[in-house]
TrEMBL record:
Residues 37-170 form the Knr4/Smi1-like domain. SMART domains: SMI1_KNR4. It comes from the Bacteria. This is Knr4/Smi1-like domain-containing protein. InterPro entries: Knr4/Smi1-like_dom, Knr4/Smi1-like_sf. It holds the Pfam family SMI1_KNR4. It comes from Pseudoalteromonas denitrificans DSM 6059.
Amino acid sequence: MNWREFKSLTESEWYDCDLYEGVCGYQIQPETRWNSGLTHNEIDSLQKKLGFSVPSMYRTFLSELNGFDQDCVDFQAETAPEIYGRICYQYPEDLENTKWLLEEIEQNRKYVNEALQLEGFPFDDIEGYIALYGHRALVVFKNKSLSPVISIVGTDVGVYGKSLEEYWKKELCVNSLG
């Protein structure tokens, strides 16, 4: 995947995107941009903090993109105020903020393993997880050519993308990239 092209395409989509009041769930604000990527040394340092090496595709992604430059907005209900929050995680800043998702994955490991097995992934070869966006996480295997992304809310677990590339295209509705 050409992550620079992906960045350009998504940022142009967000430049004048609409927000939908009354719709629950975080929405990307107009004029949102991706943060600059990490240097090779910063990625190496992140891997040390994680305790495992990241897949090559994620390493390339991180060298170009690292979360959004502004929080997303959620209109909870007509009577509730807007809530802003970081939904697209950036590293290393969000290592602490994403522990909840890693704990949820561990608590529901049986369901995570079942979801991965159904999609043909070797769940006994997992090194760790990296929170990406909301309740979605990259599964990191010993085989670094694998990069599936799971979606997890309690025991409701599914493979949301069989690769990091497939995941981001689906998450951000990018169909025009080959």
